[in-house]
Amino acid sequence: MKKPLQARPLIVIDAGHGGEDFGTHSLGVPKFQEKYLNMSTAIIVKNFLEQFGCTVLMTRSDDTFVPLDKRAAFANERNPKLFVSIHYNSAPSKEAEGIEVFYYRSDENKERTAKSKLLAQAISEKTVQNTKAKSRGIKHGNYAVLRETKMAAVLIEGGFLTNASEMDKIKDANYLKNIALGIAQGIQSYLAKEAVGGE
Questions:
Q1: Pairing with 84, which of 105, 177, 187, 196 sits 20 to 30 Å away (CA)?
Q2: What is the pLDDT of residues 87-138, one digit of tens each?
Q3: Quick one: pLDDT at residue 198?
Q4: Strand ranges inside the chain, DSSP E
Q5: Within 13 Å and on the Cβ side, how many CA atoms surround 85?
Q6: What whole-number distance in Å separates Cα of residue 180 and Cα of residue 172?
Q7: How far apart are CA 22 and CA 174, in angstroms?
Q8: Is omega for the bond preceding 30 within 30 degrees of 0, making it cis?
């Protein structure tokens, strides 16, 4: 018998960068700054998740700089079901494109690693499905917000701002909405599987 989802599971969403930390940017004019795209996407993810019955906290809700250790501490103090950090990518090659999702592999905490990997797979699958973007798969990433958090945690790179054709899509509000919906559906899918599999 399926266990129901935990009553309003708590999710922490991290909009990468902010304040004086702009992240990357598009190559064209006008320049699109990553920090704003991260924030826009995070807000839409929050709205979708709340519609799905989750409680959502954000590490930043405006254009402020929050140090990486403070983001992880924010999540650890609140003990959510999971943590998702939202970013956009850049590369020296203007041809680089697609969505990739990172999780932290820890030999000390195999259970958290396994849960993070499942979450990464679910988010990767749903975002690629919704956007028809190229999948760059899931990868190990030694990012502070993944390494220092204690719950299932992933970081998504929603596409390359340095790829002109991908940037054309990313600056479209409907495309951002599809990325955000994919992230939220991936989270929903992960929570449903976790409910079936037990805690």
A1: 196
A2: 999 999 999 999 999 999 999 999 999 999 999 999 999 999 999 999 999 9
A3: 52
A4: 10-15, 55-58, 82-89, 99-103, 135-140, 152-160
A5: 31
A6: 13
A7: 23
A8: yes
